[in-house]
Amino acid sequence: MVTCQSKFFTSMTLPTYILGDNTDHPDAIYVIRTEFPRFIINLEDDELEWFEEFDAHDERELETETKTYIQEASKFYDREVARYGDD
User: Fold this and answer.
1) Which of 57, 56, 16, 6 lies closest to 36, judged by CA?
2) Predicted confidence pLDDT, tens digits, the chain (87 residues)
3) 25 vs 58: CA distance, rounded Å
4) Residue spans of beta strands (DSSP E) within the chain
5) For residue 51, what are the contacts with CB-CB under 8 A and spacing of at least 6?
């Protein structure tokens, strides 16, 4: 969980993953990661956009960790979809 603070808003705790959609891209299924390293992934095609800038050392580490992040995002999506079916 990430806690955000701003002079305009009270403190808010964000979940690690958030689902997103956009009517301009009706087939896209977005999962947003709010913890470092932050990213958004489109599960339709596994396109991933990082919100961070990385140095060479970080990039090497990310090469090995990216698969894990994609798997976590996919599991989160599957869990959320299953919960909608429980209603």
Assistant:
1) 16
2) 656 566 666 677 899 999 999 999 999 999 999 998 999 999 999 899 999 998 888 888 888 888 899 999 999 999 999 998 766
3) 31
4) 2-4, 12-14, 17-20, 30-33, 39-42, 47-50
5) 37, 38, 39, 40
The answer to whether 50 touches 38, Cβ cutoff 8 Å, is yes
Supply 42's token pair: 């489109």
Separation between Cα atoms, residue 79 and residue 86, nearest integer Å: 11
pTM: 0.79
Q: Which two tokens stand for residue 55?
A: 């140095």
Please answer whether residues 16 and 75 qualify as being in contact, where contact means their C-beta atoms are separated by less than 8 angstroms: no
CB-facing half-sphere around the CA of 27: CA atoms within 13 A: 3
Give the whole-angstrom CA distance, residue 65 versus residue 75: 16
